[in-house]
Amino acid sequence: MTYQGHFRAIAVLGLPLVGGHLAQFAIGLTDTIMLGWYGVEALAAVTLASSFYFVLFLFGGGFGLAVMPMVATAAAEDDETSIRRSTRMGLWLSLLYATVVMPLLWWSYPILIATDQDPQVAETASEYLRVAGWGLFPALVVMVLKSYLAALERTQVVLWITVAAAVVNGLTNYALIFGNWGAPELGVMGAAIASVVTQTVSLIAVIIYAVKVLPEHSLFQRFWRPDWEMLLSVLKLGIPIGLTLLAEVSLFAMSAFMMGWIGQVPLAAHGIALNLASATFMVHLGLSNAATIRAGNALGRKDRAHLEKGAVAVTGMSLVVSILTIILFLTCAEPLISVFVEPQDPKRPEILAIGTGLLAMAALFQLVDGAQVIALGLLRGLQDAKVPMVMAGLSYWVVGIPASYYFGFIRGMEGVGVWLGLVLGLACAAVLLMARFWLRSVRIIAEPAA
């Protein structure tokens, strides 16, 4: 396949995944915008709660992401049995994990207070998590089933289910946060209920599709029967992926905690800037998922030339997105931030001032953030997860978090310093992971015989 063919194939597979991630992101964005309109304290509380929730969610999401390369490789080998087995055990592990961590969401207040947060913000955040935490069960199941469908290159349905969920979330938020259409005004609790409703709607839709359109895989027949061999295989791949995700998301969660130490307004500005940076990251994440699927297919076919060309193509596409994002963040910072804050809010000028500086730092880390997630996608496709996990842990915890604290507090740079630490951690990860793929992992597929 030529490079042009690779660009086309990645676009066909990846664009619906990008759209699906953007629709998923829109769910969180809707919460942020509407809670920003409701009040700065509500926004700060949910920013803190969401950071805590996603630390737990993304670790559990490692099982769903493990299913993607396993199904892609099995599909390339025409192994229908392995497709069913890996997906089913991914569902098992996701449900078991949600059961184990639910108490942390239910009793989150002491944990949040232990991180030295404002007591009122921590109290509101813990109330939110007691309700929103129940959405972890459907959310993790949906992640497994979306990975299964994406690996089979059924990315269009993943997109449309997520778009429908985003619409449901927006309407439910509008009704329950503000008390519109005769609903009670519940504020932060309304956002929590909307989150659970949205995840449940997504779960129903994706199960119906899987059962009706792909009955040959019989995912839910005799679902109760264990498959210990495959469960162990998913576990071995899923835990390193989950820990890698945990290392990265905890870097951003710690940045939220540090911003909370600076004050309520900086934390709110951080939430806005992080949402804007996350929107562009969704494009890289969709391309990374496409890279995982295509690398998994190449592994199943033992096609090294296809793998190498595809890796160059997807990295180039990510680079173009990064350059466009840098231009946007540096030239349109204030209009972008203004969307999240009521014009009459007395704290608006301070939020705009802090947020503009944070977006400048977000522009700085676009290149390295895109590079590290593309490298991770390629490595996952080859089911190489243990060494990347160590690399990510070192980058985010040994470099990123200490650098954030050093520049933010010891050097007195506050929010901008905290974000500079994020840049350094992501840059370290990008270099190590790209080197891992090109110097070692790509070589597991032998060169074809002369």
Automatic annotation (TrEMBL):
Keyword check for tRNA-binding: no
GO molecular function term, any single one: antiporter activity
Annotated GO biological process: monoatomic ion transport
Localisation per UniProt entry: Cell inner membrane
Key words of the record: Antiport, Cell membrane, Ion transport, Membrane, Transmembrane, Transmembrane helix, Transport
Coiled coil: none
Subcellular location, principal: membrane
Transmembrane regions: 52-77, 89-108, 128-145, 157-177, 189-211, 231-262, 268-290, 311-331, 390-410, 416-439
Entry annotated with the keyword Membrane: yes
Domain of life: Bacteria
Family annotation (InterPro entries): MATE_fam, MATE_MdtK, MdtK-like
Membrane topology qualifier: Multi-pass membrane protein
PANTHER family: FMN_FAD EXPORTER YEEO-RELATED, MULTIDRUG RESISTANCE PROTEIN NORM-RELATED
NCBIfam families, A to Z: matE
Name this protein carries in UniProt: Multidrug-efflux transporter
Originating species: Ruegeria faecimaris
Lineage summary: Bacteria, Pseudomonadati, Pseudomonadota, Alphaproteobacteria, Rhodobacterales
